[in-house]
UniProtKB/TrEMBL annotation:
Any Pfam family: Ble-like_N
Coiled coil residues, start to end: none
Ranges of residues in domain VOC: 1-123
Protein name: VOC domain-containing protein
Gene source species: Nonomuraea mesophila
Origin organism lineage: Bacteria, Bacillati, Actinomycetota, Actinomycetes, Streptosporangiales
Length: 128
């Protein structure tokens, strides 16, 4: 099974530049949509807001004003978490979320250029 998450974006080219800057590659593209490859079985489809609206019966959310979901990327080390989030912030993202301090996970969040909430997470192996 594969997972395709669909996100509305205001400016597709700007969003593509952002995710390319984070090191992600794309699978296919059209003038109105592009697919960010997260892993072999997961892709995030970026759709312009008018195209996204064609697939829904409710109003398209404004992610800069409300959080509808949190997209979490599982990474292998705290250094990878810091690298990804720091790069996102350099590319124009803003800090988002609350950093847990539970000794089990290392996690930082950011809101992308359209306000979608992303978290980078690494599970920390307890000493034992």
């Amino acid at each position: 099974m594969q997972l395709f998450v669909n996100l509305p974006v205001k400016h597709l080219e700007r969003s593509k530049e952002f995710f390319t800057g984070l090191g992600f590659r794309f699978f296919g593209a059209s003038p109105d949509m592009a697919s960010v490859v997260i892993s072999e079985k997961t892709q995030v489809m970026l759709l312009t807001e008018p195209v996204f609206a064609q697939y829904v019966t409710k109003e398209v959310s404004d992610a800069t004003k409300a959080t509808e979901s949190i997209l979490v990327l599982g990474l292998e080390s705290p250094a990878q978490v810091d690298e990804l989030v720091d790069k996102a912030l350099e590319l124009g993202a803003t800090s988002a979320g609350v950093r847990p301090d539970d000794g089990v996970r290392y996690q930082r969040g950011f809101a992308d250029l359209d306000g979608h909430h992303w978290e980078a997470l690494c599970l920390i192996q307890p000493a034992g």
